[in-house]
Amino acid sequence: MMLSIALLAAAQPVATVRVAFDRKGEIAVNASGVADLATGRPVTADDPVRVASISKLVMAIGVMRLIEQHKLDLDADVSTLLGWPLRNPAFPDRKITLRLLMSHRSSLTDGIDYVLPLDADLRAVVADPKAWDTEHAPDSFFRYTNLNSPIIAAVMERATGERFDRLMDRLVLAPLRIDACYNWANCADTVAARAVVLYRAGAPVKDDNHGARPACPVQPAQDGSCDLSRWRAGANGGIFSPQGGLRISARGLAKIGRLLLNDGTVDGIRLLSPRSIALLEKPLWKFDGSNGDTLNGFHCSYGLNVAFLATGTRDCRDDPFGDGQPRIGHAGEAYGLYSGLWIDRKRGTGVAYFATDVPAGPGQRSAFTTTEESLANPAD
Q1: What is the helix, strand, coil percentage profile of the chain, to 5?
Q2: pLDDT digit string, tens, across residues 323-345
Q3: Residue 128: CB partners within 8 Å, gap ≥ 6?
Q4: Which of 36, 125, 180, 218 keeps 20 to 30 A from 51, CA to CA?
Q5: What φ, ψ does residue 295 adopt, rounded to 5°?
Q6: How many other CB atoms are found less than 10 A from the CB of residue 135?
Q7: pTM higher than 0.90
Q8: Short-list 94, 251, 33, 62, CA closest to 159
């Protein structure tokens, strides 16, 4: 029986969920497959899943709230808040700002492991020369880099004195009444019990928690211990995986999408000003043929942790919808999961989706997978 399930998983995703929405609410909800192969529990649009890099977009909303409160500045040298100099050793005179970190133009790279244990020292981590692009100065080149996110989270913690996961709950998730959390420490037991398990070829690789909160909700310390009381503001911004550790349902993502569509308001709740939304929707980088690494045409325009689709630029394959219509949002990919949150401002519509144990297979019309193309445009 388990063999047949594994073979089925290899042929198609274990679970797929898609929520289409407009400014007023949900238009269509589709869910198929199972959240947990071991129990056969059907997946639903309310189940929390690790949405990978869409976590960065949600973090950006938290950053913008702190900017509105005058606690952060997009163009200030982050070294001031960190309490130590963040510099590319090849370009020691070039300051690094939140704007550069969020738009992946900081000159940091993923040349080192960005999944940081509980006891990691972020300053020591980025002191490793392999963390830096020594050929391109800050603000001169786009390179998608997960390591930017722990730095951003550390800056947020230093500005507020609050733990990143709790801060994101206070700034974004709780006001929007979304049951979600970065890693599992701040989620209720009832939410953790509904976790969507992530698989590769039918084998669990993440969040196989057997209906309970995981014994350690973060990456354990190097000695295997899991004492969250050792947290210190800004010492290790990677504890709660700001780059990809958000557990949120597809319905929760759809609400984030409607917040963007409605210029910072959703269901009567004003979270951000229209000016902040406009900043989030402003491209800060666009591929010109030589000013960045597009990952084979996947990234061709980017802003403050926001991606832009269908740029129409030569050698770019950034239109999984296949209609040439500009959209903003973010994709996610990790541990066999693919996810997306995209809004079409002109049409006033959007879609949030994810699929687990996605089979290998390039897309027909883009640098996205066939599964993503199908979820983006179910008419295919």
Answers
A1: 25, 20, 55
A2: 999 999 999 999 999 999 999 99
A3: 111, 112
A4: 125
A5: 55, 55
A6: 9
A7: yes
A8: 62
